[in-house]
UniProtKB/TrEMBL annotation:
Annotated ranges, domain D-isomer specific 2-hydroxyacid dehydrogenase NAD-binding: 111-286
UniProtKB keywords: Oxidoreductase
Family under the similarity heading: Belongs to the D-isomer specific 2-hydroxyacid dehydrogenase family.
Keyword Oxidoreductase: yes
D-isomer specific 2-hydroxyacid dehydrogenase catalytic domain segment(s): 9-317
Protein's name according to its UniProt entry: Lactate dehydrogenase-like 2-hydroxyacid dehydrogenase
Organism: Caulobacter rhizosphaerae
Signal peptide segment: none
Amino acid sequence: MKPRILISRRWPDVVEARLRQRYDVTLNAGDAPMGVEQLRAAMSAYDALCPTVSDRVTAEVLAAPDARVKMIANYGAGYEHIDLAAARAAGVVVTNTPDVLTDATAELAMLLMLMTSRRAAEGERELRAGQWTGWRPTHLLGRSMAGKTLGLVGYGRIARATARRARAALGMEIAYYSRRRADDEDGATYHETLESLAAAADVLSLHTPGGPETHHLVDAALLARMKPTAILINTARGSVVAEADLAQALADGTIAGAGLDVYQGEPKVDPVLLAAPNTVLLPHLGSATLETRTAMGMRAADNLDRFFDGMPPLDRVA
């Protein structure tokens, strides 16, 4: 009998086809987030669960009576939505899909950087609203990135990929802050404190994991240390930024702008951020290329195959 697995959202067709060859697959045809009761019921009906960031696999879910699930193959690199301690206590293996998102997320960080610094979103909104009155010398003046300092909070794979692109394409200087200084800095300048980096950066780009250690790492105090001409970019986790503080900083002119792809209460976004003209707001598109989303699904499928073959999964996080 084939193991029964539940895929909580639609995955690329080629990945779903691969999974059907080996597993008894149930798809979420409506492609809507699953609630706690649905996930609790799934725990008792399937051998493996394949959630995404939109599914909160809480201790309550994992404590479902007569739970059958012994494997959670998460579709995504982040796993803050899964209670890992509860999973361990329940004897449930949890995996993620690292490595395959690097280039796509770095590309999006660059996109947000350029759109924010050149005020592209403001311009598009003006044009679509029929408010553009024609070219003029001082209209929507942005700032060039050439020679500016890109400050990276975290210096892992995605941060380094962003740095390479920024240096090669835009001629930016690279600086970073990380809990541990890198052995190979690849020409970047290390800052011993986040506050020092924030004060030096023209662009502060976030590349940290979520979790208690980074919760609201960017708050009013840190934003106050940034240059009034600086911009904030977040392609990491929404919880890293205190959104109310950021909204106030944007309104007050403490910083010049922000480009965000992730939010603490996804899919809800702070109304003040929505109303702020000096923002570029994207709906969590960091990994949204066909190639990357397919690779993520294939990585999750590899983890499933190894688990059901009695082998250690490649990307175990619990």
